[in-house]
Amino acid sequence: MGRLDDAIRSYSEALDLAPDSAHNWSNLGLAQHESGQYSDAEHSLRTALSLDPGLAMAHHNLAWLLQRQHRVDEAIASYRSAARHMPGSAQSHYNLGTLLEQKDNVDEARSHYRAALDASPTFIPAHRALADLALRTVPLWHVPMMNDVARNRAYQNALNRAVRPGSVVFEIGTGSGLLAMMAARYGAETVVTCEADQIVAQAATEVIRSNGYSATVQVVPKHSQEMVVGEHLPRSPDVFVSEIFSSELLGEHVLSSIEDAKRRLLSPQTQVIPQSANIMIALVGGDALCDNLFVADVCEFDLRAFNAIVPKRQPLVREDLPVQLLSDPLAAFSFDFQSQASWPGETKIFDIPVTGDGKCVGILQWIRLQLDDEVAFENAPTSRAGSSSWTRSIYLFPEPTSLYRRDVVRVLAAHNRNCPWFIVEDLTRLSDQ
Amino acid sequence: MGRLDDAIRSYSEALDLAPDSAHNWSNLGLAQHESGQYSDAEHSLRTALSLDPGLAMAHHNLAWLLQRQHRVDEAIASYRSAARHMPGSAQSHYNLGTLLEQKDNVDEARSHYRAALDASPTFIPAHRALADLALRTVPLWHVPMMNDVARNRAYQNALNRAVRPGSVVFEIGTGSGLLAMMAARYGAETVVTCEADQIVAQAATEVIRSNGYSATVQVVPKHSQEMVVGEHLPRSPDVFVSEIFSSELLGEHVLSSIEDAKRRLLSPQTQVIPQSANIMIALVGGDALCDNLFVADVCEFDLRAFNAIVPKRQPLVREDLPVQLLSDPLAAFSFDFQSQASWPGETKIFDIPVTGDGKCVGILQWIRLQLDDEVAFENAPTSRAGSSSWTRSIYLFPEPTSLYRRDVVRVLAAHNRNCPWFIVEDLTRLSDQ
């Protein structure tokens, strides 16, 4: 503290001699900020800027002072001034980017992170922020999904059957443009595909151009709810295709997007791909899953009390672990996209018969898409484990529980249109154990 | 809009007849809010509350209005009033929890999510918020780490050698209490272990109690920087142990925590476990990694343009994928915790000789801990793949690149004490290709 007081005193003395020195006011403001005198600091920095409106360091220091006080909009304005007067300041661009991200202004945040790296190529926080932003645009499952042969073949077969020469095809969620190009290949006259993420839309446009489909496939960089027939679509489409389903099926506002499309954009004759979808569940266990999700005896200590604080729902990221299904798969929720127009939230109770003996960790959840009358596709744990891009989720029991054939587990299942949830209500021992 | 206008008109007319009806003012305020008349809405809701300060619905609706306007502190106060007057409102508790989380008040947020579930056991958003909070407290790697036999054995061996009867042992990061109990088992007189997360500290205290070590092991629910010798520690410890290393080694402010402990709490005689650590890298490739990280030709379309937007750093979550190392492992950064007192940021350049032919996806990063002179532990990709709790990271090349033995890759490596980063600068073809 002593050093800061000394600094404040010496800058003040310097200002007695040269009261018009913007630099001295700026330095005084910084020292006042560091010693916690926020309002004095703000006054000093604003005085500096009134004397020299182009003093970039004072803009930056004022912005940092405002940021510390959670005055986000004012801080953004000051960082903008700092970056304008001092474009080589990686720190100004980076701090501005983080605040813009807080305000969900992702595109501008990205460009300031890039400006930070232009100014300083080894500025690690900007590298990291760009990677984190890219991870929101292209999550870890995205590339494996594009390389998922079974998924691609299923959509290809369904589109091959549905699309006829002259068809108009509408897609929500362009991604790489793969499904849209398939529709074009099978003879569609016009394919309109909308993509809410600007960065993905740009990449898809480039992919489509480089494959020679720009004349047929049009990428509209908008959310589906902004699409209008007559403006973006020539007419109601013959085929509607979408693959915006999350691992829980219901993420990304999929139900409200499809409801809106059916109400405003599709006709009763439009073929919807997938025609229906299910949220699937089964009781699941096995030693490998137990060790991945729960602790018991470790080095002759009993760590079980720690199990009380593990998350009650977890993505099963370790696709290599063997899983043991302890019940038949069950379609907990069904969504008929072809025939129905809306899908309200639901709550159900299931009595699930146990089909084998084993240590159960909880309820496994995956999804199933029925693309048309002939092709279905699911990331069931028994089929193609390790090769699907959708992650399965586990809803955990409080502790691993030994189940035996003919026991019955009562499960409360609910979804609120955005997320499913599963809770074990009761266990009835009908086995001989 | 017409319906809202009608509602506003009819509530206004009702208020002409009964101007003291708090309910009518509240309903009018809600309708005004929904039609976008924010300041009229606020006036109506505040009038309702001045007439009936206990009208919970008006508190809730005012809170929601304030939340929509990003007036977070005011919204929190109003939700608190709503929850107090209407404890059965799951939505009030839940909304309050989300705002408290925004303000990093995690403990109170958690208790309001729980109150939401007490009020409504199937209120899915609260289940989900609690699981997400728990995931921050106990990340996916935590349970596998506790069950990581090789890690546990390494720490057990090192503690067995270091701890003597009468030792004072200090640990940063209690976790489940496992390492602290090991130290107690090997004869420590006092083990003091600090844990910044309150929920983890409580669980560890229960684990330690149930194993009968409460007399020896004391969990202090504080950040290490709040610990004081004479208050929390009887004296400078004989042994200092910590396992707060992230997958990149440097997360969780590990360097500043150890620097602070060495400056204030340890003595030159204190044995530090681990005595040193490395951030390890190697060039990495293989077909499975290529398909997981990049797209190429899919269904006879060329999707390569999409590779421009994939994240430049990714955790390698698929531990089952075979990886091919294309260089010898390299200790990019070393941290001598026993002998040094501080570790500033570093920037280095490495010329890495390619040791085999293959398609390279980028730079793989893992960590290595040297616990004492005898025991080391690392999550190298060649050893124990699939069984470590630390995730390896990949810093991606722009595209998969064919490398051949004797090529040289120039890598820029930097860390800023919180995060490492690696960038390929140049490729020199010394192979015959």
TrEMBL record, chains A, B:
Molecular function via GO: histone methyltransferase activity; protein-arginine N-methyltransferase activity
Keywords from the UniProt entry: TPR repeat
Signal peptide extent: none
Pfam families: PrmA, TPR_11, TPR_16
Gene3D superfamilies assigned: Hnrnp arginine n-methyltransferase1 (2.70.160.11), Tetratricopeptide repeat domain (1.25.40.10), Vaccinia Virus protein VP39 (3.40.50.150)
Origin superkingdom: Bacteria
UniProt keyword Secreted, yes or no: no
TPR repeat spans: 22-55, 90-123
SUPFAM superfamilies for this protein: S-adenosyl-L-methionine-dependent methyltransferases, TPR-like
UniProt-recorded name of the protein: TPR repeat protein
Organism: Pigmentiphaga kullae
